[in-house]
Structures are given as structure tokens and as C-alpha cells.
């Protein structure tokens, strides 16, 4: 039951040291609050563990994870786990997905009992022994990755109907590749010097070699074999070590060159702009030795590591004040957004601490969650969920100039309230002095149902004060220009500008081809002073009936936020309350039908 699952997890966490803290508090509910743990629908059993890159070190003890006998997904990849895999884990009969790659597991490659197994990834470990013939029973397997271990012997004649991805490369396998596996590419088998047959060199192509007689070596390429026989194991090791050293040096040189080039370019690997380009390598500054250290803030969702990220195809979304932003599509189809930060002023410790805070704040439904981050001397990356519906900036301005439909009033109200709630949460959870520091419409991202989510939380604290970003200047409170320090009150000012932007349809920046205003609060104030008219409002909004009063109320809230004197501005909590008090759009229909008039949400 859930209690024994909980105990098994606690036993695991107690026994296995880990670099990153787990919030596995015995008193807190496992299914809703424990990082990296997924339960079944009725919350009676643990069915998934996703804990990649937590820094687990040492062996997994028996009677810990192995006791989770309803477990379907086990992901402990990219840790420092070693020793043999306890047999109670390999015996769990419910397992469907096992991701244990990039660890230091050793011992004989175990057979997995679960006939439900869909994916088994044990690559980049130190497993030895043969491929168990029992793998033939795993008829549901679609992925089998055993690359970069020390597995030896012949490949058993596996015939797995669903197998799509197979990788046995870089092991010590020998003999001929079974017919049933010959449809897989070369890359599935390379790096096994004693292995032959399609798609590698055919085992029987021996006629060109006069001696030794091919009949002595019926299944092994004589060419490879002959050269191998002359070397003793000592010289093979020497050559391998030498080869690796040269390769490592070359790689290091290559990375250095890339870095130098990057520095010269200022930021980003891309030379141009736009979305059509496909950079292959936005992580070229990542040092070989520091790979795999992608730190996850919520391991329960994603299953990838730094290598996957570096391999992903990426496209530039834009260059912001903090650096370049990429959309990356991982090999398994997961889409994430990677921010490559420049001019980070924080030390590694400060960066980590900030990310911990950001991790807590990211749990709010109006904040774009940070999924993972990476910090090295040369490269700082922050990984976010991809928000396919785009930003408020796009919906308000770009969409329209591209002939798209304008956002209606109800949607604007909903986005305004959501964003205000997100900012209020940032102010309350991050501590009394915690600020966002860069509130603007391109940092309000939307879900499909137009829930406004605030992005880039915590980044302003890590980066040197951006002075040049024109898109930011229009949102900046007057005092910040002098003090160069954001405060919660300056966030309120920026939010006020954002509200004015939604009300007027004008962007607070100079942008050719758009109806923009450099100082939006000043412009609105001057119009309002002349006469309280509909002139300030976006013409698109004037199409809607019976919303003028709400628009005027919102305008008042916005103007109170952009008060010149910081102390005259409301607190973010108050702003939320004020917006809530304007009749809720979703309640308007019911209210006007007379059944529930004057309804206000709490
Ligand atoms: N998680 C995300 N999902 C989808 N689009 C995103 C995501 N994060 C950022 N974007 C979009 O990518 C583009 C570039 O973002 P970026 O944050 O680099 O620039 P910015 O918002 O203009 O400036 P700043 O760096 O000051 O926030 C923006 O249009 C932004 O809306």
C-alpha cells in the first residue's frame, strides 16, 4: 500500500547520499508533494519515480526501491549510482519504463522480469556479462539501449516485434548479428570489434584475404581478427588509452575554439536572427567533465539530461535582455525552452540558491515553471516548459499586425488577473524583498486556455542590470532608472504599464510599424486629464457592449499602479483584490440572466 511505498522511498533516500535536497517529508502527502514521485489515479500506490540528475551516489540497497511493486516508471538516470542492481528491482513485474543510463552500475547485466517492459535504457554504465536470452520474452520492448557498457558474448537471436530503437554499440560483443536484428542501422552495433554481419561487415567476406583460411573463423571478419591477434591485451589498453587522450585533447581544443568564437560574437551561437536557423549546438561551452550535471527542479515531469539537450534541434525564439532563448525539441519529442544567460553576476552557490527559490515559486499556476538549470564557468542555462500559445506581446501586437484577431475583453481580464496573481505569489513566497524585476508583455506567456503565466522569475537577481534593452525601458519605474534596483513597488509599476498596454493596445516602446508610445503612463495621463474619454482605449475593445465600466475600473487600477511616488502604489495583493472585484467575465452571463446578480469571486 501507499504507506509501505512511502517507507521504501524513505529507506532509499536515507541510504543513498544525494547532492540535491529532496523534499520527502514523512509528514507531507507523498502523491501531491514529494518531488519526483508519481502515484496512480486514486493515490493508493507509487507508480513512477523520476529522479534524474539528483546526485545520488553509491549503490541502491535491496529492500528499498525494489519494494515498490506497483512501479511502472523508474528513472534514476544521470546520477552517480554504482554497484549491482538489486534483484528485487529487476523482479518488479509492473515495470514499463526503466531509465538508468549515465550511472556507474556494474556486475552482470541483469534480466528484467517484467513482461510489461516498454523501454530499457542501461547505457553508459559498466555492466558486464552476456545479453540474457530472457530478453526475448520482453515482447513489448520498443527501446533497448545497452550502449557503452562492457557486455560480451554473442547477441542472442532476439525477435522483438515492437523494437524500434536498439543500441548495443561500444561493448565487447562478438559473433554474428542475428538476422532478426539486421534491419537496425550500423550505429546500433558499432564499437564492438569482434562483431560482424549486416549492417556491419559481412562475416563471410573473407575471399580477399589469402590467409588465415576463412574456415577457421566462420563468424568473425578475418581482417579485423588478424590484426587483433597480433596485439596482446596490454598494447590494446595502451592504444585505447592513448587514443582516448588524443580524442579528449581534440575535443577540448574544439570546445575552446567554439568558446572563443562565442565570446567574440557577444552572445549566442547563431550569427543571424530569426526562427529559420537551426543551431545544432547551443551548449558548446559545456565542458566534457561537467556534462550530466543538469539540475532538475521538479524531476517528476521531464526525462532528459544535458546530452539530450545538446543533441536536440533548436531554434532561436529571440534575444532578450538576459541572453538568447531557444526552443529545443528533444529526441523523444519533448519541447522545452532554453535560456542561455549572459553576464551572470552570481556565483554558483548564489545561482543554485536562487533556483531553489524559483523552484518553489514555479509551482503556482500563474508562473512559468523552471524545469532545470545548468551552471558552469562558461555556460549558464535555464530550462523552461515550452508555452505553445506564445506571449501576451504577440497576442496583443504581432498577431494583429499579421492580420490575426485581437484579444477580446474577457480574455484580457483573465490574463490580467492571472498575471497579477502570479506576481503577488512571487512577492509573498520569495520573501519580503523578492522581486521579479522584468515584468513586461513578452514575459507573460499563455496557456491554451489563456491563463497568463509570468516568466523569467528570479533572473533579474542573477544578471547585471540591463541598461540597453529598449523593450524593458518602457516598463521601468522612474525611481529604478536612478537606483538601478528593482523593488516590489517597481514591479507594481511595471504591472501597471502592462495593464495600460492591454487597455490601450499600444506597446510601451519604440518599435517601427507599431502604434507604440515611449512613455505609456504619461500619454494615458495626459489624455485622461483632458477629458475622461474612450480615446485611450484600444479601438478593438470598443466593439464590445457593456464593458466600458469595467474598462474604466481597470484603467483606474492601472493608473494607481503607475503612480510616480512608489509609496502611493498599491501592493500586489491589493491589485489582485481590486481586479477580482471588477465583475468576473465568466460570471457576467449568469449575472445578466438575473439568477445571480452582483456575484463576486472571493
Ligand atoms: N517558455 C517559453 N515558451 C514559449 N515562448 C517563450 C518562452 N520563454 C520565452 N519565450 C518567447 O521567446 C522570445 C524571447 O524571449 P526572451 O525572454 O529571450 O526575450 P524577451 O522576453 O523579449 O526579453 P527578456 O530577456 O528581457 O525577458 C519572446 O517572444 C518570449 O515570449
Automatic annotation (TrEMBL):
Binding positions for ATP per the UniProt entry? 339
Task: Provide this UniProt record's keywords sorted from A to Z.
Answer: ATP-binding, Leucine-rich repeat, Membrane, Nucleotide-binding, Phosphoprotein, Receptor, Repeat, Signal, Transmembrane, Transmembrane helix
Q: Where, by residue number, does the polypeptide cross the bilayer?
A: 236-259
Entry-linked SUPFAM superfamilies: L domain-like (SSF52058), Protein kinase-like (PK-like) (SSF56112)
**What does the record say about its membrane topology?**
Single-pass membrane protein
- Chief place of localization: membrane
User: What Gene Ontology terms describe what this protein does at the molecular function level?
Assistant: ATP binding; protein kinase activity
Domain spans labelled Protein kinase: 311-587
Q: Hey, which family's this protein in? A: Belongs to the protein kinase superfamily.
Q: What is this protein called?
A: Protein kinase domain-containing protein
- Tell me what organism the protein belongs to: Citrus sinensis
Taxonomic placement:
Eukaryota, Viridiplantae, Streptophyta, Embryophyta, Tracheophyta
Amino acid at each position: 500500500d501507499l504507506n509501505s511505498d512511502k517507507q521504501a522511498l524513505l529507506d532509499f533516500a536515507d541510504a543513498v547520499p544525494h547532492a540535491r535536497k529532496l523534499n520527502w517529508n514523512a509528514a507531507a502527502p507523498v502523491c501531491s508533494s514529494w518531488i519526483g514521485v508519481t502515484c496512480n489515479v486514486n493515490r493508493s500506490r507509487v507508480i513512477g519515480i523520476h529522479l534524474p540528475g539528483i546526485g545520488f551516489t553509491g549503490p541502491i540497497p535491496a529492500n528499498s526501491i525494489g519494494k515498490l511493486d506497483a512501479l511502472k516508471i523508474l528513472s534514476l538516470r544521470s546520477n552517480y549510482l554504482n554497484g549491482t542492481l538489486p534483484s528485487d528491482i529487476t523482479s518488479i513485474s509492473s515495470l514499463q519504463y526503466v531509465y538508468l543510463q549515465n550511472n556507474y552500475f556494474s556486475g552482470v547485466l541483469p534480466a528484467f522480469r517484467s513482461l510489461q517492459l516498454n523501454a530499457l535504457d542501461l547505457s553508459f554504465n559498466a555492466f558486464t556479462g552476456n545479453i540474457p536470452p530472457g530478453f526475448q520474452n520482453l515482447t513489448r520492448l520498443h527501446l533497448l539501449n545497452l550502449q557503452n557498457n562492457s557486455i560480451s558474448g554473442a547477441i542472442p537471436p532476439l525477435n522483438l516485434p515492437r523494437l524500434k530503437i536498439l543500441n548495443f554499440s561500444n561493448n565487447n560483443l562478438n559473433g554474428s548479428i542475428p538476422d532478426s536484428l539486421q534491419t537496425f542501422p550500423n550505429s546500433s552495433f558499432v564499437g564492438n570489434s569482434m562483431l560482424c554481419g549486416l549492417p556491419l561487415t559481412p562475416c563471410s567476406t573473407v575471399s580477399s584475404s589469402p590467409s588465415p583460411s576463412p574456415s577457421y573463423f566462420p563468424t568473425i571478419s578475418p581482417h579485423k581478427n588478424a590484426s587483433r591477434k597480433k596485439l596482446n591485451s596490454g598494447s590494446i589498453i595502451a592504444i585505447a588509452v592513448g587514443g582516448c587522450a588524443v580524442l579528449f585533447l581534440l575535443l577540448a581544443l574544439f570546445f575552446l575554439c567554439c568558446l572563443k568564437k562565442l565570446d567574440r560574437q557577444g552572445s549566442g551561437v547563431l550569427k543571424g536572427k530569426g526562427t529559420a536557423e537551426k543551431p545544432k549546438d547551443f551548449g558548446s561551452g559545456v565542458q566534457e567533465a561537467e556534462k550530466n550535471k543538469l539540475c532538475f527542479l521538479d524531476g517528476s515531469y521531464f526525462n532528459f539530461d544535458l546530452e539530450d539537450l545538446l543533441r536536440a534541434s533548436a531554434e532561436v525564439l529571440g534575444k532578450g535582455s538576459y541572453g538568447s532563448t531557444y526552443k529545443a525539441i528533444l529526441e523523444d519529442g519533448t519541447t522545452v525552452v532554453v535560456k542561455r544567460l549572459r553576464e551572470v553576476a552570481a556565483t554558483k552557490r548564489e545561482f543554485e540558491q536562487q533556483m531553489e527559490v524559483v523552484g518553489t515559486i514555479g509551482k503556482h499556476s500563474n508562473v512559468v515553471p523552471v524545469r532545470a538549470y545548468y551552471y558552469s564557468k562558461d555556460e549558464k542555462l535555464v530550462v523552461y516548459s515550452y508555452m505553445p500559445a506564445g506571449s501576451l506581446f504577440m497576442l496583443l501586437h504581432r498577431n494583429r499586425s499579421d492580420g490575426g484577431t485581437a484579444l477580446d475583453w474577457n480574455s484580457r481580464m483573465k490574463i490580467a488577473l492571472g498575471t497579477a496573481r502570479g506576481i503577488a505569489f512571487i512577492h509573498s513566497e520569495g520573501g519580503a524583498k523578492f522581486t521579479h524585476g522584468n515584468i513586461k508583455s513578452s514575459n507573460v506567456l499563455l496557456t491554451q486556455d489563456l491563463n497568463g503565466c509570468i516568466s523569467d522569475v528570479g533572473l533579474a537577481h542573477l544578471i547585471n542590470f540591463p541598461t540597453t534593452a529598449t523593450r524593458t525601458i518602457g516598463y521601468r519605474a522612474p525611481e529604478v532608472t536612478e537606483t538601478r534596483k528593482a523593488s516590489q513597488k517597481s514591479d507594481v509599476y511595471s504591472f501597471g504599464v502592462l495593464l495600460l498596454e492591454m487597455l490601450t493596445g499600444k506597446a510601451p516602446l519604440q518599435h517601427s510599424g507599431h502604434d507604440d508610445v515611449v512613455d505609456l503612463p504619461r500619454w494615458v495621463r495626459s489624455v485622461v486629464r483632458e477629458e475622461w474619454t474612450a480615446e485611450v482605449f484600444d479601438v478593438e475593445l470598443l466593439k464590445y457592449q457593456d464593458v466600458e465600466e469595467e474598462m474604466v475600473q481597470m484603467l483606474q487600477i492601472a493608473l494607481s499602479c503607475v503612480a510616480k511616488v512608489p509609496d502611493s502604489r498599491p501592493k500586489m495583493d491589493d491589485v489582485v483584490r481590486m481586479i477580482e472585484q471588477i465583475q468576473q467575465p465568466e460570471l457576467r452571463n449568469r449575472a445578466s440572466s438575473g439568477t445571480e446578480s452582483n456575484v463576486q469571486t472571493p
